[in-house]
Amino acid sequence: MDVEKGRRKSRGLSNLEVCLIFLFVAMTGACIGLVVVYFVDKDDSPPHIEGPSSGCGGPQDLTGESGTFTSFNYPNSYDNGKSCAWQITVDPNKVIHLWFEEFALEDTQQCTGDMVTLRDSLGIIGKYCGYTKPKPLVSLTNHLTVYFDTNDRKTDQGFKAHYKAVSPEQATEIAGAGGFLQGDTGKLMTPGFPEQNYPNGALYQWRITVPEGERVRLTFTSFDLVPEVCGDFVEVYDGHKPGSSSGGKLCGGTMPEPVESSSNTMVVRFKSDNSLTSKGFNATYTNSSLVIPTTTPPTTPRPTTQTTRPPTTTGSGGPVIVQGRKGVIQSSGFPNPYPAHSHSSWKISVSTGFLIKLQITDLAIPGETGACKEDKLVISDNYSTLGTHCGYLLPSVVVSASDTMSVTFQSDGRLTDRGFSARWEAVYPEDITEIQGCGFSSKKETGIIRSQNWPMNYKANTECMWNIAVPLGKKITLNFTHFDLEAKDFLSSKCYDNIMVYDINGITNALLQTHGPFCGTKLPASIQTEGTRLLIRFHTDLFTEAKGFRAYWTTNPSLPAPTDPPVQPNPWDDIPIDWPSPCGKPAIPPSVVSRIVNGEPAVPHSWPWQVSMQVWPDSRPEPEFSHTCGGTLIHKNWVLTAAHCFIRYADELQRWRMCLGKHNLTYTEPSESCYGVSAIYRHEGFQYPTVPTVEFDIALVRLSMEVKPSDVISYACLPSEEEVLPAGKKCYATGWGDETGNSLNPEAAEGLNQVALPVVPFDTCKRMDYWWFQVKSSMICCGYKLPDELKSVCQGDSGGPLVCQDSADAPWEVHGITSFGPIGCIMDKKPSVFTRSSAYIPWISNVMRRDIYNEHTSGCGGPKDLISTSGSLSTMGFPGSYDNNARCQWNIQVPVGKLVHLHFQNFSLEESQLCLNDKVALTDTLGSLGTHCSHILPKDVVSQGNVLHMSFSSNNKIVDTGFAATWKAVDPAEAPCGGSFSSEQGEIVSPNWPNDYDAQSACTWHINIPSAKMIHVVFTDFELQAVNALGNCVDYVEIFSGTGQSMASLGRFCGFAPPSPINIPSNTVVIRFLSNGADQQSGFRGYWTTDASVIPTLAPSPPNPWDNIIIDWPKDCGNPEVTPNTATTRVVNGVEAIPHSWPWQVSMQATPMLPIPYMHGCGGSLIHEEWILTAAHCFMFPLNVPSFWRMCLGKHHMNSSMDVPSAEECYKVDRIIRHKGFVYEQDNTDISNDIALVHLAEPVNMTREISPICLPKPEIVVPAGTPCFVTGWGDEKGNLFPVVSEKLNQAALPVIDFQTCSKPAYWWDSLRPSMICAGYESPDELKSACQGDSGGPFACKTTSVNPTWEVHGIVSFGPQGCIRDKKPSVFTRVSAFSDWIDDNIKKFVYESTKPV
C-alpha cells in the first residue's frame, strides 16, 4: 500500500498554498532588505575589533589607562568549556589596580573547576573561584594577564572586573599592605601585626630595590602563619623580572632563615586562603653589603641543595633514557613555569630484579584532578598506566611492576605553572609494603590479600600493588571472598576506585591477559592465570571510600581456602560488662499508633532513655549550655550517640553535659539530672568531613558519675549482634528535632517529639533517586513512600534513638542512631538514615571494656593508681624504646600530711619546641609542676599536697628510650626548694639567687599562719624570662589563696618588673615557681609578712675596708652657666645645642696608637672632677685599654678649631671600670648592666664651659611622659653607618613606661627594670637616640625649688637604623646603679691610697 501511494501522480498546488508561498517569499525579501539597510546605513555601529579576541567577547589586549571586562554572556550564565584571556598593559611608569565588581563562579576545592587565574611577570599570582570577591590587588609591573576557564559541568553568573593604571606609590593604600620599597633598609609586615590577625583572601606584594650592584637581604623577625597545608604562605622571588626563581613557600610558625637575592631587587608575596588566619609576619630588608651591629644572636644561613636537572626532550626527539639507582626528573624550567607546547618524556631503567619507586614531590599543572585535559603528566610501566596527573594535589607514591617506567609530560599553548618535580629510586620488590603502606611481593603458592585497613574503609588517594610469582608449571587461581568498592560512576561509567588484575608470563614477563577494572559491590568471578605471575593493582581516588576487599590465591584450588590468622587478644577482652537489667521498659508507657504524619508530642518521660546532649559554645564566655544532639542511655555510665555530634569540641569535655529526665527544653525541670562527661569515644573509621561519607557515625560518651535510674530515667536495650530489621518494621524516632523542616535555620522543639517510621529495605534505599552509594549495609533507612507522608527525621535529632520492639510486650531496643537525612528534612522526600546499632555491638563492648581497663591501668604497664609510701614507674619497655601514640597516666598518692617527692633516674624523650611532641606532664592540686621532654634530666619535684598526677604521651614519629623514676613520701620540710612555713614573716628566694636559677625548676612555698587574718607578699627583686610571642609566661611565679580544692590563683607573674604587693585576706598562701629549659635569669627575692610595717631584711653583706671612705662629690652640679634651650619639648630629629649649655658632655676619643689621630667613639658625663660616667659597651675588646683613650670636655664643634676661642680640655685615662655583670661580649642577647666609670689621670679644671652633672637619688624612677634631653655628636640622620655630627646636638625625648617599652613590638625581653626607655609614639617624630651617642647623658631637670640637672640615663642601645626603625631608645638607668657607683669609686680610692 505504501509503495502504491508513492507511485501516485503528484497533484497541483491549491490556491491557498500558492498564496502562502507568495507571502513567505515577500516577507523574506523584506527582512533581507531591512538587514542590508541596517548594516549599510547604521552610523553608530561599533568599530571592528582589531587584534585577537579575548574569547569572551571584546579584545584580548587591553591597553587603555582604565577599562572593564566581563565573563562571556555576563550578567547571564557563562558557557561550559570556555577559555578566555585578557592581556592588560599600561604606561611603563604605572602599575595595574585590578578589582572585581561582581564574582560568582562554580565553587570547587583548590579551584579545579571554573576559575579566574591572574598571572604577572613572575608567574601565577592566584586562582579564584566561588562566590567571594577577590580583594583588590596591584600588579608589580605594567603588565597583567587574566585567564578565565570553565569546565564542562556547572555554570554561574560569572564576573565583572575593572582595571586602572596607578602610580606604584598607591599600592599600599589600595591593597592594604605591600608596595614598592627602596633604600638601604626597611620593614615589611602584614597589616596590624602583631595586634591583629591578617585577613582571609589577602594578597600582598612587596617589590624591594636597593642600589644597583648591591643585593637584598631579607630577615624575618616574627613569623606566625596558619600551618595547615600551606594555605597561607610567603613566597620570595629572586628579582622581579620574568624567569626570576622562587625560594619556595614559607608557612607555619617556624622562623625562616634570612634570604639574600642575587641582584638588587627582590619580590615578597604573601597570600592567605579563605579559612583560618594567624598573627602574620614582620621582616626587615637591608642592603646586604652593610654590616649592622645588633643585639640579637646571629643566624646561620640555611645550606642550599642544588638539584641537577636531567636533560629533557621536546617534540619528537624521543624519550630521555635515565639509568642508575636514583635521581630526579623535572619539567623544563622548574620551579619556574614550563614552556607552552612542550612534550617531554623519560624512560627510567634500573637493574634487573629491581622495581622503580616514583614520588612526585611538587605538582602545579593547570587542570582538574582526575579530569586532566591537554596539560598532564602520565606515568606508566610495561603493563599499565600508573596515573595521569594534573592540578595541585600530590598523588601517592607509585611502584612499577617491572624494571622500566615511562614518564611523559605535555602542555598546550595556554596556561602554564611550575610543572612538576619527582624523585625516582630503584627498590627491591620485598619493600613494596613499606613504600606504599599496602601490597606486597610473594613467591608463596597460597596466601590472602586484603585492602588497606580491612575490614574498615580503605584510604583515599592510594596505590597498592601485589606481585605474586609461583614456580614454573603452576597456575594461580584468584578468588574474592568480600568486595565493596565505590560504585561505578553513573554518568561516565568509570570505576574511580578499582582493581586491575594482570596475568603475566613468568619467564618473558610478557602480559598475557588483563582482568578488570572491578568496582562496586559485585563479587568478581574467579580468575585463573595462564602464566606463573599475577599482578594486582588497587587504585583509589580522593573521594568516596568503602570497606574494600578480601581475596586469596592458590595454585591448588582443591585445597581448603587459607584462613586469616587469629586476632591477637586484648588484655581487656574478658572484662565483664554489668549491663542494666531490666532495660527497655518505661515506667510511663509511650503512646504508640500505627502511622503518624509529621510526628507528635511524646507522653512526658515515656522514652526515659532519651538524652539531651547540651554544649557550651566558645562564643559564650561564661558556661551556658544549649541542646545540640540527642542520645540514648544504654548503661549507668554510658550514652550512645552519633559521632558527627562531636565534629566540634570533641576534646573539650568541659563544654558538654548529658541531661536525662527531660521533656521540655525551655526551662529546668524538677525531674531532670545533668551529668558531666569524662570521655568521648568516636568510631575510629568516622572521618567526616575530611572524607565525604558519614559511615561509622557512632560514638560513646562516658558520664562523669553513675546514673541513678528512676521512673523518668532508665535504659534502652541493645539489639542482638548483626540483627537486621525486616522491611516495613515500625520503629520510633524521638527527639527535640526541628519541626519546621527549615534546613537553613533549624530550631529545636520545646517538647520531646516522637514519630513512627517503617523500615525501608536496603536495596530500595540505595537506589540512585534515594541515597545511592552514600548508604551502607551498616545503616538503616526508615520512612514512608507516599509524597504526603513523613519521610524524614530532622536535623535537631542527630544522635537520637530509633527504637523498636520485637512484640507488643517486648523491651524496646535501640536499633538506630539518627545519622543523616535530606536537605530540608521532610521536604526533600527521602528516607532518614540511621547508624545500625547491631552492626557495632562488638565495637561498643570493646570500647566499654577498654575504658574499664584503662581506668585502672597506667597505659605503660602496671596500675594507674599508686597508693603507697614509695615506688617506681617507667615508660613501656624501658630501657628499650617506648611506643608511638602512647598515652600513660599515674596517680601517685601518699599518706595525708606527707608530700610526693619524684626523682627521675633516666630521661630521654624526643626533643621538640614547647614539648609539642613526646612529653611528660606533672600536676598536683595547684596545677602544673612542669612539662618535660628532650634528654635533660628534670629536677626533683615535690607536690603540694599528698597527690601527684603524672602523664606521658608520644606522637607517631620519633621514639626514644623514655624514662624511669622513683617516688617516695616526704615531710614538707624535706622539699629541695620551697617548703612549708608557719612563721609570721619569712623570705622567698629563687634557687641560686642572686645567680641564675636552674632550668626546669619547680618550687612551692606553702605558708599557713593559723592566727593570721591577712598575709602580705612583696617582691623586692624580680627577673624572670619574659612572656613569649603569644603573651604567655613560660617561667613564672604563681600565687594561690584558699585551701584544699578551693585554691584560687591570684595571678602568674614573669618578666623583669616586680609584681605589685599582694594582700591575701586569708591565713594561707601558696607560692609556686616554675621554669622551663631555656633562658634562665637571676630570679627573684621576696618576703611574706602578717604586718605590712614589719619587713624581713637580708643578712647584711660582709663589710669592705673601703665602706667608710667619703667621696667628695661636687657641691655645685647640674647648673650650667649657659642656659640650655629647653623651650621646645618636642624636637623632630634633634637640633643644635646652644654652645656649652651642656657643660658635663664628654667626647670620649680613642686611637690604637699615635700618630693615628684620636676619633670620637662615645659620649660620657662628667660627674666628679676625676670621674666620667659612660656605657660599658664603649670599652669592648680591643678598646678596653685605658691608654687608647682621652676624655675631651668643653667642646661644641667636633673640630675644635671652629670653637673660637676654644674651651676644649682633653685628659688622659688611667682606669676603666666596667660592671662585672656586663656580658654582652659573651652573650649578645643580654645588654644589661651597660655602665662604666672612667678615672682621669688628673682632676678636671672646672670652668664656665666645663662643669659636672648631678647623680639622681638611688632607685628613683622618672615618671612616664617626663621630657628629658639626650645630647651628643651622634648621627643626625640615622644612617646604618653612623656619621659623627659636626656640632653638639640635643633632642627632647619623653620617658616611656616599662610596661609599654617591654611589649614584643618594642624591646620585649631585651629590656630590664634597670633601664629607661624614651621616645615618641608618632611615626613622624623622633623615637631614638643614634648610635654615635653611646654612653652619653640622658639628662632630666628636677622639679625642686632650685632645680638642677641630673643624669638619669646612659645611652645604651636602640633600633638598627636609629630613628628609621621606629622604636624607643634605651638607656641604662643610673639610679639603679647608685650603690655600684659609690662602691667602685670608694674601692678605687682605697686601693690607690693603700700602702704598697
From TrEMBL:
Pfam families: CUB, Trypsin. Residues 302-314 have a biased composition (Low complexity). Keywords: Disulfide bond, Hydrolase, Membrane, Protease, Repeat, Serine protease, Signal, Sushi, Transmembrane, Transmembrane helix. InterPro entries: CUB_dom, Peptidase_S1_PA, Peptidase_S1_PA_chymotrypsin, Peptidase_S1A, Sperma_CUB_dom_sf, Trypsin_dom, TRYPSIN_HIS, TRYPSIN_SER. One of its GO terms (molecular function) is serine-type endopeptidase activity. It comes from the Eukaryota. The chain crosses the membrane at residues 20-40. One of its GO terms (cellular component) is extracellular space. Residues 288-321 are annotated as: Disordered. Residues 56-166, 177-288, 316-427, 438-556, 860-970, 977-1091 form the CUB domain. Residues 596-849, 1131-1386 form the Peptidase S1 domain. The keyword Ribonucleoprotein does not apply. GO terms for biological process: fertilization; proteolysis. PROSITE patterns: CUB (PS01180), PROKAR_LIPOPROTEIN (PS51257), TRYPSIN_DOM (PS50240), TRYPSIN_HIS (PS00134), TRYPSIN_SER (PS00135). This is Zgc:154142. It comes from Acanthochromis polyacanthus. The lineage of its organism: Eukaryota, Metazoa, Chordata, Craniata, Vertebrata.
